[in-house]
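Hi R.,

Here's the chain you asked about this morning:
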Amino acid sequence: MKRPLPPGCATWNDPNESLEASCATWNDPNESLESVNARIHDGVPLDRLAARADGYIRAMFDHFPYLRLPPCPVCLEIGPGTGTIMEGLHRELRRRGNLPSWIGGLDIAENMLAKAKSRLAGKGPFRFLHYDGITIPLPDASVDFLYSVATLQHVPKPYVYNLFFEMRRIVKPAGFAVFQLLSFKHLPEQETHSPWREEIHRQITLAKGHWHHFYTREELEAVLKIGTGIPFVDIHENGAIWVCFHQSPLPLPEDFNPERYLELNPDVREGGADPARHWQEYGYKEGRKWR
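And here is the predicted structure, written out as tokens:
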């Protein structure tokens, strides 16, 4: 049974219309691979895309140096574009001597996936999954490392919030999720090439183009911890926001000495906190020393 229409409203829109409109610019079957690469990589020359991808991967591990992946990890990227960052992760894991079982690329835009497939066919342990933008077609607790770079910022917020539930569902208890979003601190720069008025008009009229959504640290902490129920959330904010979450306490460093930790961090001793638990919940994020 359909709900009654609000006064002055002629029809109900498809509830997923905004999602489909937001991804339309990424799903053009007639756009060439060269054109796509130039557009989605901000005009970076093709011969520099690998270095750019490597920079994103380094940023993940630099922001969150405690990231530890098990042998032969299962990895998944949300919004892989043409696959350059998937290749970057493969290079980094190969450098670390930990070749992945597979690296997946998940996207709602099937034509973008087709371009990534054509680029990466036969080049590594890459897989591609098409989905509806709501439910990730993978079993519970099946992914060791989930990540997303410069993608979720283009997706309407309710669908990103829903993705947080899906991330939590598919990431293994000891796994990690890392993703990048746009901070409101980036808005002054954004205004120089995509004015806020035009941005809002584009979205409310469902116009094709690059939509942008902005976040704050406080918003993400509340949504992830309280709304989504994720216990361990680490956020770094500047022009971009980098987020890492995990559902299990980090394993203590092999050389962790509780007494030395308290000696080096007298405020922890004064507060009466358990040193091991304090490091697992706060110390690693604060860069506290234990040796």
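One quick note: The chain has a mean pLDDT of 92.

Cheers,
M.
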